[in-house]
Amino acid sequence: MPFHVDDVAELYALGSLEDREREAVDVHLRRCSQCTQAIADAERDVATIASMEPRHEAPAELGSRIERVLEVRPFARAPRAVAHTWMIPAAMAAVLLLGLLPTAYFAAESRAMHDAMIAQNSAITRLASQPYRVANFNAARARVVYGVDGSWYVVIVPSAPKKLAVAWMHDGGRTMLGEAVPHGDVATLYLPKSHRMDRLALMDGERIVAEAKLTWQRTAPNRQAVRSV
Amino acid sequence: MIPAPEGDEALAAAFAAHHAWAFGEAYRRHASLLYSAAYNVLGNADDAKDCVGDAVARLWRSPGSYTAQRGNLRNFLVVCVRNEAISRRRRQARQTRVEERLTSMAPQFEEMHLEDPIERDRVRRALLALPAEQRTAIALAYYDGKTQSEIAAELREPLGTIKSRIKLGLRKLALALEVAPAESERA
């Protein structure tokens, strides 16, 4: 990449870039040590100022919430879902994921991989126990399987040659959610969320390669089977 | 739960490797600072709580966003939380800010704050020591969370000029505050 972002390091650290600009900087930083150093210097200056602002005690429930986000605790057993015909493709995806798990597990030597496994396990737990819907992306044969209450999403990209970023498209902009990382021939991304998303995009760098529109019903089809996370 | 390592460097390395326990430990070590960074931007406990939670969740979902090369983990987390808070405030289009007075023209700003009790605050004292054009640009960015384009439009200056002012002003401000940093090093 010919350009550098060190001239906006201070603006980045101060939060004075638009969301889209900041995301572009984040992408660039993954492969540019020169700019990473410039950003680190600016972050040090902003953190110095922020640390001298009035201090407030963090509420205890925030720590609990973060623990839940990190999924350091195993999920409680969920109620059994009611079977629907539209679940079949998603169930096949779940089986595919299950099939990949042992291979991935034995290949894993790092704790990072182990954490990824926990995330996939969580996805499979959800797929196996909770009602969900499926939406296809308009390219790449990719799909997103998601809980009917919007509390979780699994993006599945078959035959993915490399990892692809997943973005939530909203309000004329986008929020980067993470990356679908290939394990074998399938790239997956599990997303525990707290709200409903209507449009997701798969991105290769800054380029959108596929989009999916997610549908929601006003009333969950089997409300008794829906659990909150 | 894996026990936390002793040093910040070991924690940063584990955080970079995306270990769940390292994320939890990093939050616990800097909880007050991170929550305060959000609260001081948003001015609301509920929003601050959501903001910190969302910022950590965003990092958790984005492996590789922090590397050891990025430097101090605490600084990185503070900036992530502040950026999340500023984005949130922009989205919500909130206009009520304690520091709204800072948006006024520089001469008014000086008169107002020299007589204000807030003048005792070290940060604002250091701000006042900056050249007026740098101070205004920094205040608009740091306190009001304005984008570079908004600042350039408001001050009717070219974007490059705004970048230069912020670059110089931020470094001077941080250097002035680092002179007596003992209290700032907590957390």
Question: What would your notes on this structure say?
Answer:
- The complex is a heterodimer of chains A (229) and B (187).
- Chain A has 229 residues and is of the alpha+beta class.
- Chain A has 2 domains: 6-50, no CATH class; 83-225, no CATH class.
- Chain A has helices at residues 9-14, 19-29, 33-50, 60-70, 88-107, 111-129, and strands at residues 132-136, 143-147, 152-158, 164-170, 173-183, 186-192, 199-204, 207-213.
- The radius of gyration of chain A is 20 Å and the shape is globular.
- Mean pLDDT of chain A is 74; it is low at 72-83, 102-113 and 219-229.
- Chain B has 2 domains: 8-92, Orthogonal Bundle (Rna Polymerase Sigma Factor, Chain: A), CATH 1.10.1740; 98-185, Arc Repressor Mutant, subunit A.
- The longest helix of chain B is centred in the N-terminal third of the chain and has 23 residues, at 20-42.
- Chain B is globular.
- The two termini of chain B are 22 Å apart.
- The interface between A and B is large, with 65 and 76 residues.
**Fraction in beta strands of chain A:** 15-25%
CATH homology group of the largest domain in chain B: Winged helix-like DNA-binding domain superfamily/Winged helix DNA-binding domain
Distance, first to last CA of chain B: 22 Å
The topology string of helices and strands of chain A comes to: HHHHHHEEEEEEEE
Number of helices of chain A: 6
The overall average pLDDT of chain A, rounded, is 74
Total domain count of chain A:
2
The end-to-end span of chain A amounts to 41 Å
User: Which H/E pattern describes the elements of chain B?
Assistant: HHHHHHHHH
C-alpha-based Rg of chain B, rounded? 18 Å
Count of helix runs of chain B:
9
